[in-house]
Amino acid sequence: MKESCGLFGIFSPKPDPKISRTVYYGLIALQHRGQESAGIAVGDGEKIKYHKGLGLVNDVFNEEVLGELSGHVAIGHVRYSTTGSNVFENAQPIVVAGQQGSLAVAHNGNIINTRELRSQLEKKGLPFRSTTDSEIIALLLIEQGPDMLHACLDVTRTLQGAYCLLLMNQNSLIAIRDPLGFRPLCMGRLDDCVVFASETVALDAVGAEFVRDIEPGEVVLVNENGVESHKTAFSRSAFCIFEFVYFARPDSVLENVSVYAARERAGRILAIEQPADADLVVGVPDSGTVAAIGYSNQSGIPYGMGLIKNKYIGRTFIQPSQKLRNLGVRLKLNALRELVKGKSIVLVDDSIVRGTTMGQIVKMLRTAGARSIHVRIASPPIRYGCYFGVDTSDRRELIAAVLEEKKIEQLIGADSLGYLSLEGLVKAVGLPSDRLCLACFNGIYPLQVPSFCTKYLFEKE
Ligand code: SF4
Question: Phi first, then psi: what are they for 64, rounded to 5°?
């Protein structure tokens, strides 16, 4: 599963020639949330300058580019596409020009009423350069005129779906979280600067102090007069539980819950719910590592690094055939033969999406001499697609939506397969279930989703 995006923003009360470097470091810490493109926009009181491109943060920025981007307000973005494909035009921040000036927007999430919003704008003759929902937001805002705060308060009433937004003009910065608070967004302090980030790890990376999470339905304006908070509609919180399962870094704290602690507890509960007679617990790195430690702590079965990850592989571009995809997994992971040979193994991962990778890992461990392999998953079966910022809107691609557990067990070649229950996962996270979105597990969507929602909506039309 792929997360949609990571956001970082900063407001400094005085001009800061190094402001884009701070954003750059913040984006590096958020790189796990999106590896397709990266961008930074900076306001210097007169205009907005920006630079963006396809690739990792380090591919897109260098010393010379960062040196050009000085000012006192800045936002940055790393993207994985959930609406529109991976082309330069869809990279963010999206900068749009209006009669009264320019606006830069960075978005994490997915808007689900995009078709009607886009057609409203097209009827008015507004130009679209991208196929993203984020450009729709940018154009809706610029159309409202120069008062950025009022534009935000107005436009957020018309948006449906998941959106954390950072937006800026040449002088001010605004942070917004949708009324259901699907995606994380927090605020911090760095000396006399105000900082916003998708995850607390980005605050840690730049040396900022955590202040608080932005609340669902909150709009926070930061300018020369200070910090001003406004509340829009609030229905109920529906924070994405998958942030705890997989998306967020384990060293982040979301909704006052340590991601590491939640994953360790999930592993412990998994060991109680799905015990196995084994000699060794192995986690699939990095996604299953913490839950595997929890499983080992609870069961008393020793934990070992039976799978070694190539840290330098980044993304693999090998995709065109199953044979080459298998090679991609072998480039990323290798079994530690000396450790696994002759052993009965509990293999822990955070989730199974399509099942192909897990099948290859099981095969790899068998080839390395494992006697038996008991796959344990630290979340329930994913049976429903996500329309709120994760790239799984096509249910047919989810193995648990089309096959029963016994069939999945056979398909991946495991001796046994066991999932954590939904109750167990919610208990591990420690937040009330009515504050969480659990839709990919139970099919109960916090918002009604139009049937036409797909990633490439505006490329088909
Ligand atoms: Fe998160 Fe699943 Fe809800 Fe999507 S459907 S927001 S992945 S919990």
Answer: -65, -45
pTM of the model: 0.92
Amino acid at 410: Q
Grouping H, G, I as helix, E, B as strand and the rest as coil, residue 262 is: helix
182 Cβ below 6 A of ligand 1: yes
Residue with tokens 């002088």: 171
What number is the average pLDDT over the span 28-42?
A: 95
193 among known catalytic residues: no
Closest residue CA from atom 1 of ligand 1: 240
pLDDT at 395 over 50: yes
Q: How far apart are CA 161 and CA 182, in angstroms?
A: 9
**CA angle at 133 for the pair 232 and 81, rounded to the nearest 5°:** 120
For residues 2 and 156, give the distance between their C-alpha atoms in angstroms, rounded to a whole number. Answer: 25
Q: Are 379 and 349 in contact (CB under 8 A)?
A: no
Going by DSSP bridges, is the β-strand pair 436-437/239-240 parallel, antiparallel, or unpaired?
Answer: parallel
Distance CA 40, CA 78 (A): 9
DSSP-derived secondary structure for 80-138: --SSS-S-GGG-SSEEEEETTEEEEEEEEEEES-HHHHHHHHHHTT----SSSHHHHHH
Token readout for 96 is: 């749009």
The identity of residue 103, as a single letter, is L
pLDDT band at 12 (very low <50, low <70, confident <90, very high): very high
If one residue of 3, 177, 241, 444 were mutated to test the ligand 1 pocket, choosing by the most ligand atoms within 8 A of its CB, it would be 241
**Rounded CA separation 414/269 (Å):** 21
Nearest-angstrom CA–CA distance, 169 and 161: 24
Find the mean pLDDT for residues 367-385: 97
Q: Rounded to whole angstroms, what are the CA distances from 87 to 54, 129, 131, 195?
A: 7, 11, 9, 29
Instruction: List Cβ neighbours of 75 (8 Å cut-off, separation of 6 or more).
Output: 7, 8, 9, 23, 40, 41, 93, 104, 106, 166, 167, 168, 173
Domain annotation for the chain: domains and CATH numbers:
6-238 (3.60.20.10), 258-430 (3.40.50.2020)
The Å distance, Cα 97 to ligand 1 centre, comes to 34
| C-alpha span between 24 and 68 (Å, rounded) | 13
Q: Ligand 1: does its nearest atom lie under 6 Å from the Cβ of 259?
A: no
- DSSP letter string over 320-373? SSHHHHHHHHHHHEEE-HHHHTT-EEEEEES--SSSHHHHHHHHHHHHTT-SEE
